[in-house]
């Protein structure tokens, strides 16, 4: 019998990019076997898709309720061990709640929920039942992001005094200037996307990344958001000032109307000894800055990197690794915990990241609505 982790998927069917990303990532270390799920609200479409990707249709379900009922009726050594949620935002909370209460481990796309209150409710369920919960802040899986985290934790930058994160895209330009389109896309519908579009979609990645690499918690925020049109309820651009403590401050900039930008996510951390910079569009380069010294470029796969970075490196030096590899590292970390193996807390984001992310989104929106004031997290 296969010793692979039995894996189910909700959503991610058809030509879904996120579905492909998760399936490739789960296959990387031969740790998972996709055994079923519900890829589409139409069960016949789900079954057709299952046939296309080469998995049996006997465990393709019409909805999550049927999945839970039939999977929990199976012997423990046959039922799904973990289920990934790849659906639109508004389904994340009810699906995660039902799965956690039924005893399943969960891997969830972000944002984890629609509200901070929902996130706290999930956290309470997970603590009670002891489920494994992975949140796919994918960029934390890059080897050089992990290297940045370890170098900062080891004190190589000294005391952190400035943080800067930028996440710029331009894709929403294609629809925001058309009244009919901006009022019909789910990304700009609060009932489906939550109270924020830009911060909820990409700004929360930058927020989570800053806390992930520095090991510090952001204490308060001051936000200035842009909706661009009066009939658009959702932010599509924003700048957020950050306070981590009395002497550590920074800025988070996110935009979906940065014309011509693709996925320009950059992170810079400056300490009393040195600084580090990383760019998602060139993820194999980590720039080390020191006063009076030439800039150094650190790359994955070399022995000078940390154990956490090397564990997430699949190829010899000089061979580029990308977004699929980063997601694969998150799935690898979740697999270690499900199997009861030793793991580093930096191997995958989890429930705490989701709770803090939702709190950040709500407090940043509150800061803007209250007249651009400081709000404590």
Which helices and strands occur, and which strands form pairs?
Layout: E1 5-11, H1 17-27, E2 32-38, H2 43-53, H3 64-72, E3 82-86, H4 92-101, E4 105-108, H5 116-129, E5 133-135, H6 143-153, E6 160-168, H7 173-176, H8 179-182, H9 190-193, H10 198-214, E7 220-226, E8 237-245, E9 248-255, E10 264-271, E11 275-279, E12 286-289, E13 296-298, H11 307-311, H12 323-338, H13 351-369, E14 375-376
Parallel strand pairs: 1-2, 1-3, 3-4, 4-5, 6-9
Antiparallel strand pairs: 6-10, 7-8, 7-14, 8-9, 10-11, 11-12, 12-13
Helix pairs in contact: 1-12, 4-5, 5-13, 10-13
Protein model, in words:
Residues 6-136 form the Gfo/Idh/MocA-like oxidoreductase N-terminal domain. This is Oxidoreductase. InterPro entries: Gfo/Idh/MocA-like_OxRdtase_N (IPR000683), Gfo/Idh/MocA_oxidoreduct (IPR051317), GFO_IDH_MocA-like_dom (IPR055170), NAD(P)-bd_dom_sf (IPR036291). Helix 5 packs antiparallel against helix 13 (351-369). The protein is of the alpha/beta class. 36% of the residues lie in helices and 21% in strands. The N and C termini lie far apart (48 Å). The radius of gyration is 21 Å and the shape is globular. The longest helix is centred in the last third of the chain and has 19 residues, at 351-369. It has a 9-stranded mixed sheet. The model has no long low-confidence stretch (mean pLDDT 95). It has 2 domains: 5-138, NAD(P)-binding Rossmann-like Domain (Rossmann fold, 3-Layer(aba) Sandwich), CATH 3.40.50; 143-313 and 351-369, Dihydrodipicolinate Reductase, domain 2, CATH 3.30.360.10.
């Amino acid at each position: 019998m296969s010793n692979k982790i039995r894996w189910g998927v909700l959503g991610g069917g058809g030509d879904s990019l996120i579905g492909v990303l998760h399936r490739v990532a789960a296959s990387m270390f031969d740790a998972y076997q996709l055994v079923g799920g519900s890829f589409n609200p139409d069960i016949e479409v789900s079954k057709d898709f299952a046939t296309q990707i080469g998995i049996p249709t006997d465990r393709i379900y019409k909805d999550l309720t049927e999945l839970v009922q039939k999977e929990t009726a199976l012997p423990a050594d046959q039922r799904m061990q973990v289920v990934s949620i790849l659906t639109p935002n508004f389904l994340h909370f009810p699906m995660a709640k039902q799965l956690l209460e039924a005893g399943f481990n969960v891997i969830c796309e972000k944002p984890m929920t629609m509200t901070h209150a929902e996130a706290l409710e999930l956290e309470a369920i997970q603590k009670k039942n002891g489920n494994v919960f992975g949140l796919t802040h994918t960029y934390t899986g890059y080897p050089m992001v992990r290297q940045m985290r370890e170098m900062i934790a080891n004190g190589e930058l000294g005391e952190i005094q400035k943080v800067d994160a930028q996440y710029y895209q331009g894709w929403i330009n294609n629809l925001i200037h058309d009244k009919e389109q901006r009022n019909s896309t789910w990304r700009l519908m609060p009932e489906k996307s939550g109270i924020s579009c830009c911060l909820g979609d990409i700004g929360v990645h930058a927020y989570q990344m800053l806390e992930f690499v520095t090991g510090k918690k952001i204490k308060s925020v001051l936000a200035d958001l842009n909706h661009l049109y009066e009939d658009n309820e959702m932010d599509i651009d924003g700048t957020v000032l950050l306070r981590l403590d009395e002497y550590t401050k920074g800025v988070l900039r996110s935009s979906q109307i940065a014309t011509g930008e693709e996925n320009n996510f950059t992170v810079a951390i400056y300490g009393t000894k040195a600084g580090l910079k990383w760019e998602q569009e060139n993820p194999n380069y980590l720039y080390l800055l020191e006063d009076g010294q030439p800039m150094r470029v650190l790359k994955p796969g070399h022995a000078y990197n940390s154990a956490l970075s090397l564990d997430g490196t699949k190829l010899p030096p000089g061979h580029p690794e990308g977004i699929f590899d980063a997601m694969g590292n998150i799935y690898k970390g979740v697999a270690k915990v499900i199997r009861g193996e030793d793991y580093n807390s930096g191997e995958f984001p989890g429930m705490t990241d989701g709770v803090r992310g939702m709190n950040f989104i709500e407090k940043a929106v509150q800061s803007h609505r209250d007249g651009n004031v400081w709000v404590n997290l």
